[in-house]
Amino acid sequence: MKKAGNRGSEPADEERRRENLLQQFRRSYGRDAQFVTRAPGRVNLLGEHTDYNGLPVLPMAIDRNTLIAGAARRDLQVNVKNLDSSFAPRSFELAKSIPAFAAGDWGNYTKAAAQGLALHAGKTLRHGADLLVDGNIPHGAGLSSSSALVVATALALLAANERHESPETLAEILPGAERYVGTLSGGMDHAISLLAEAGHALRIDFFPLRTRPVPLPSGYDIIVCHSLVQAEKSAAAKRHYNHRVIECRLACRLLDVALGTGLPRDLTMLGDLATLFPGRSLSEFVAYLSPWLPDRPLSLAEIATYIGAPVDALQVQCQVPPGLSDAFAVVRRARHVLTEAERVGQAEEALGAGDAGAFASLMDASHASCRDDYEISCREIEDLIRASKDGGALGARLTGAGFGGCTVSLVDRSRTAEFLKHVDRHFYAQRLADERHIEQYRFVFRPRGGATSQRLEAITS
Ligand code: GLA
């Protein structure tokens, strides 16, 4: 993790980073950059693991981002270097189908962007690019450093080809591109990075993509604290994440049977319940599962018996990848997703009414649901939540995919200093050998605007 400070980066820091990046670009590639793109990370305030179920989320973009300086090439080669020397330079060629680097390689996120653009409307790009990356979003923290890299790269490749795609279009195509890295993730991270509005959180709905700015309560800080447990999307967390996605698909198959003739068509995702039964509360549908099925993990064979279908057919229908453990906690997972979606609606109302207390209670309820029903918390996150609540957070929850990463707390601004002191003493001081490093792990974030692409000089092809 880089950069100290418990604030996100200020505009002056960003200007300095940009100037340095342009200078380093010249040094590294022996010519001037032609464009600079910038894509922010995000913190999700509410609505966890709802996006891939077609249900809403409530994130905001943060003042940490990925910057890319670049220049077009005459051939199809893409060269990517990173100011952080722990990321070795990578090169690849633009093509209709781009083979991935080894699993876990950072370069796959840049390839994902190129692949997504190549697949979009069947067009391949005609110019490669020399690119230099500078990111200050902590990695493996659940703050979407990887999606910011995908977004900034996509904007850079478009700039090199003098092509434009609307942020809405990119927000639709890039999540699919990131699946090329092996995570079955939803569309939240790219959408907020591209479409964020400064000073606001954003309610995002999917399929089709819709956004609505939501005000944040005045006089409160959004504070993000790292649990010191890395939750890399490309490592073990990926397996746990994909397992949850499959559990939701299996819950749909079970609901098809449980709802029987009352269902106009089979569910493609849990969010279809909102479209098919407008006006009914989503949490009501949990009752179709819970008295029928035991509230414990079921094997695929057991689920197939409940559904009355052969196991292999179910495996194919739900695209169950090989290597997942044969234990699917469908009732709990459905309960989390359906109640969480309702909480997003309630949070939007609470924030619209300026009711910080009601919003904070929804954050707490979301955390309990993530911990008990979605089972994505861990001991360190629980210790951090306890320290945060004891330190005066009005509401606190884990944020992002879980399995480590960060928490987000809502804190009365007049109590922020006291809160940080408490968390430092009761969480970080016990875990970090050198207390001088504490400031690298917790941040007071302000909501920022979405990704940008700036042309510095005409591109002659
Ligand atoms: C990751 C994914 C998102 C979303 C969150 C959990 O960040 O990339 O699509 O599913 O986890 O809410």
Shape: globular
Largest sheet composition:
6 strands, mixed
What string, H for helix and E for strand, traces the elements in order?
HEEEEHEHHHEEEHHHHHHHEEHEE
**Which parts are unreliable, with pLDDT below 50 for 5 consecutive residues or more?**
1-5
Query: What's the CATH C level of the domain at 11-216 and 448-455?
Result: Alpha Beta
Overall average residue pLDDT: 93
Bound chemical compounds: alpha-D-galactopyranose
For the record, the CATH architecture of the domain at 11-216 and 448-455 stands as: 2-Layer Sandwich
Total helices: the number is: 13
The number of strands is 12
Structure description:
This protein is of the alpha+beta class. The chain has helices at 11-29, 107-119, 145-160, 167-178, 188-195, 236-259, 272-276, 300-307, 311-317, 330-352, 356-372, 379-390, 416-428; strands spanning 35-46, 58-72, 77-82, 90-93, 129-135, 200-205, 210-215, 220-226, 395-399, 406-412, 442-445, 452-455. The strands form 3 sheets. It has a 6-stranded mixed beta sheet with strand order 4-3-5-2-1-12, sandwiched between helices. The protein has a 4-stranded antiparallel beta sheet with strand order 9-10-8-11. A two-stranded antiparallel ribbon has the order 6-7. The protein is globular. The protein starts with 10 loop residues before the first helix and ends in a 6-residue tail after the last strand. The relative contact order is 0.17. Residues 1-5 have low confidence and may be disordered. Alpha-D-galactopyranose (GLA) binds next to helix 5.
